[in-house]
UniProtKB/TrEMBL annotation:
TPR repeats lie at residues 385-418. Gene3D superfamilies: 1.10.220.160, 1.25.40.970, 6.10.140.2220, SET domain, Tetratricopeptide repeat domain. One of its GO terms (biological process) is methylation. PROSITE patterns: SET, TPR, ZF_MYND_2. This is [histone H3]-lysine(4) N-trimethyltransferase. One of its GO terms (cellular component) is nucleus. It is an enzyme of class 2 (transferase). Residues 54-92 form the MYND-type domain. Keywords: Metal-binding, Methyltransferase, S-adenosyl-L-methionine, TPR repeat, Transferase, Zinc, Zinc-finger. GO terms for molecular function: histone H3K4 trimethyltransferase activity; zinc ion binding. The lineage of its organism: Eukaryota, Metazoa, Chordata, Craniata, Vertebrata. It comes from Anabas testudineus. Its EC number is 2.1.1.354.
Length: 437
């Protein structure tokens, strides 16, 4: 049996037919039970969250201590600062030297930390090969031209910002490492699924994908925790979803091919049982012709792509909201409100309204989203619990306390399974609820 760091037993590694390596359980697990917890091999906090979260342990605190040299990194205390120094020293003097020109991507920052960790491991063990990273899939030969150009730019940034403090491997090895991180990296998210940082968990990366996942990955500080969302019996493979499961089968598999270089053949992908509900068309006295539906599908997918491309641009919230509203009007002539493309644009509009502090409009979108989300996502979905949390906090902000408490309770039902009943998020939520009850 393979020993997994942080494991509580009952797991083994095996060769999964058609998928390569995988994990399976050797004893029964119940819904909500922890399979294992995995510390990050390496992780990096998003630049946007600096000052709100500790760089080392990812704890959210009001009064964090600032690094005295660069004035950019923040820590809970001297212990956390010392714990992070072997990684932070790669950036500390560089940030001071480059000032506003210091701009490596989050992936480049993570790769730099991986290289520093590998160097430390090599010095301690005397071994050239670090299995925990070396065994991860890279698909470097499958990368398309656009991704290859991005990797080349990442490598150039690595040389520019880190070569003074880090011995970099040759170009080929760097290409492999960037491809490994792209395929195996995990986004650490908070309770509302906001991006906090990126990490590598080699043990969790062993888990294969299914659109009918048996487990869910959540985060406790910088550790990943894997819990059952289905009852599991000995011999069952441990399966997570690599992607957002809201979308229809073709969209899901396009995303899997683009990012992970495979096509899913789970029961849901074979049966496409939810596709009709996900692509629901508005009921009219005269049925809408198929070519009209097909044209609107193309329009919807094009709009989603265009919105994603524009989303990173600063100070265009009003333009983005207008784009959401216009697309909802266009699609609404053909699609039902529960159609996933309608839901996608409503979700984006809700997020923009929250940023613009327009709580009433955000609530209006959120209330339209919740019921279809609950029907289209699997049970114990974080997408659903995060929507209840967002709505609950919006209700509370408008002093609609009973509605807020109701939304929080529904979020907790999911989170107690996905995060575990003792998670800090649940503790804080109970405190908030007690205050208003």
């Amino acid at each position: 049996m393979m020993q997994i760091k942080g494991s509580i037993g009952g797991l083994e590694r095996f060769d999964s037919p058609g998928k390569g390596r995988g994990l399976r359980v050797t004893r029964p697990f119940k819904v909500g039970e922890l399979l294992f917890s995995s510390p990050a091999y390496a992780c990096v906090l998003s630049v946007k969250e600096r000052g709100c979260y500790c760089e080392f342990c990812f704890t959210r605190k009001e009064s964090l201590a600032r690094c005295g040299k660069c004035k950019k990194a923040f820590y809970c205390n001297a212990k956390c600062q010392k714990g992070d120094w072997s990684f932070h020293k790669l950036e500390c003097s560089a940030m001071t030297a480059f000032r506003e020109n210091w701009c490596p991507s989050e992936i480049s920052r993570l790769v730099a930390r991986i290289l520093a960790k590998k160097k430390t491991q090599k010095e301690r063990s005397g071994s050239e090969k670090i299995l925990t990273i070396g065994e991860m899939q890279s698909h470097v030969e499958d990368v398309d031209n656009e991704r290859r150009e991005m990797n080349e730019a990442e490598i150039a940034a690595l040389h520019r910002f880190y070569s003074k403090h880090l011995e970099l491997p040759d170009h080929k090895d760097l290409l492999t490492l960037f491809s490994q991180v792209a395929c195996n990296g995990f986004t650490i998210e908070d309770d509302e699924l906001s991006h906090l940082g990126t990490a590598i968990y080699p043990d969790v990366a062993l888990i294969n994908h299914s659109c009918l996942p048996s487990v869910i990955v959540t985060y406790n500080g910088t550790s990943a925790e894997v819990r059952a969302v289905q009852d599991m019996k000995p011999g069952d493979e441990v399966l997570i979803s690599y992607i957002d499961l809201l979308y229809p089968t073709d969209d899901r598999n396009n995303r899997l091919r683009e990012t992970y270089y495979f096509t899913c053949d789970c029961k849901e992908c074979k049966s496409k049982s939810k596709d009709n509900a996900k692509l629901k068309v508005r009921k009219q006295s005269d049925p809408i012709e198929q070519d009209v539906i097909s044209n609107m599908m193309r329009y919807a997918r094009k709009t989603v792509r265009e919105f994603r491309a524009l989303k990173g641009i600063k100070n265009i919230l009003h333009e983005l909201l207008e784009m959401c509203e216009q697309s909802l009007e266009e699609m609404g002539a053909v699609f039902d409100d529960s159609n996933v493309y309608m839901l996608h644009m409503m979700y984006q509009a809700m997020g923009i309204c929250i940023h613009m502090q327009d709580a009433d409009s955000a609530i209006r979108y959120g209330e339209k989203i919740l019921k279809p989300y609950s029907q289209l996502y699997p049970p114990y979905s974080l997408n659903v619990s995060s929507m209840y949390l967002k709505l609950g906090r919006l209700y509370m902000g408008l002093e609609r306390y009973s509605m807020g408490i109701s939304a929080f309770k529904k979020a907790m039902t999911i989170m107690e399974v996905a995060h575990g009943k003792d998670h800090l998020y649940l503790t804080e939520l109970r405190k908030d609820m007690d205050f208003f009850m």
